[in-house]
Amino acid sequence: MDLQAFILCGQGTALSPFTQTRGDTGLPKALLPVANRHMIEYVLDWCEQASFREIAVVAEPEELEQIQKALKPYMEIRKRQHELLAKHGPTVSGVTQRQPVPLRFVEARYDTTGAILQRELLPCIKGDFVLLPCDFVTEIPPQIFIDQFRNKDPDNLAMAVLYRNTFEIIDKKPLDISYTVYSENDDSVKQPVLLDSYSKDDVDKSKYLQIRSHLLWRYPNASVSKKLLNASIYFCSKELVELLAPVGPFSAISETESDNDEDTAARSQKQQAIHPIQFRAKNELIKDPINCNKSLSKLFRDLARRSWQHSTPRETVGLFILPSLGSFIRSNILNAYMEANRYMLRVKSLLFAAHSTPTMNNAVGADSIVGANCTILERTSVKLSVLGKNCQIGKRCRIVGSVILDNVEIEDECVLENVIVGSTSKVGKKCRLTNSYIEGSYTVNAKTVLKGETLTHIYLEESDQSSESAGSSEEEDSSDYSEADYDEEFEDDGLFER
Fold first, then answer.
1. How many domains does the chain have?
2. Is residue 350 part of a domain?
3. Which tens digits make up the pLDDT trace of 290-302?
4. Are residues 89 and 39 in the same domain?
5. How many Cα atoms sit within 13 Å of 297 on the Cβ side?
6. 348 located within any domain
7. Sequence-ordered list of residues with C-beta below 8 angstroms from that of 146, at least 6 positions apart, any chain
8. Which end of the chain is more exposed for a tag (fewer CB within 10 A), N or C?
9. What tens digit of pLDDT does each residue of 41-69 get?
């Protein structure tokens, strides 16, 4: 099955202050290092195993150039590996080595992932496709996902992937817990389907979880779980292109830009050339007015509601819950980002159990990674930690379970436990930091003792000029936003009867 893969690189607001959401000290989310490798490289390796027809990296124009530049060494290494394998001819099983999967970059000019899918990606889709985040690490091979999607029911438009948190160290409070309503279909031959989902904030505001009557009539044995986490992985049928297509012709450029007639005609022809799958019992797709100006999770939630909201049955969204035997983790919050680094360090220590790098009186454990051109002075201990390149660590320091980014200077007699230190930061002498985060280019004064703190710079968002007018406009904007946000959250969340 030839699939197109689209890797969506978000802004990483929950990973602040280490992403570019705060000033210029952060990195694009896709380029945050996990065990001294860019986060997105693990997703690209996973896609390489799947042998997708095409891989597209989707990001904002400002970040896309940085991502493309940072991935050049990765693409060169991948190209050389395929060239070396090709020289040896067919493999032992007689299978000829495939060429590297084409990798291209797509600019995203819209704020929400749903709008990006509708306006930017649909014109590029030629068949079945998969939407992926840029922040997951897993040992589960992609073939398991693909086989599950290949054997989907004819009525399924897409397959949403959910997983359970298998890392007990991650605090469950900051996780994006939601109430997932689904049908297990134990008494039938059909696969589980996603029916609805409610965010924890919606349930807390209404004080109870109310399931719509239409859902219970159609699926009386529905189940509700708050232990399932959204993997943000969606395997989609090409029918979804027809369903989500905008009313007018496709437009992959912003509304302020113009397009020539030839491109418009070609896109319209491409839109007409996409037909529903042929093995459906009734080869007909009923279009509903679906608002795509929202996140992908809410978009597929609305698609899942189509199966029970209408008198005429609509297509369903399949559900695939990852087996708990395999590890899966998304680095979408800081605690999970820390645990993703530790997970890769444990994998490294198991693969290279006999490998250790003690030099002089240093004690760098086999479960740690030290970048190039690092200086570590005597009587310093580094355990279960990652050090970026060009770091300078002083004497008699103790670093445990921490992530130190590039060009960081840590002076003598410092103790760091479960700490993330941003690039080009400096930690003064005799500091003791525990469970803390330090933004890039920040200087921690000597003899500082912190626990559970986040050290960031102070940014002035508004200039002193016309402060009164700015303040009044902020009040108006905030009131408009809260009202719009209220409508977005509660207009179609299923909590209130109409």
1. 3
2. no
3. 889 999 999 999 9
4. yes
5. 17
6. no
7. 1, 3, 50, 235
8. C
9. 999 999 988 889 999 999 999 899 999 99
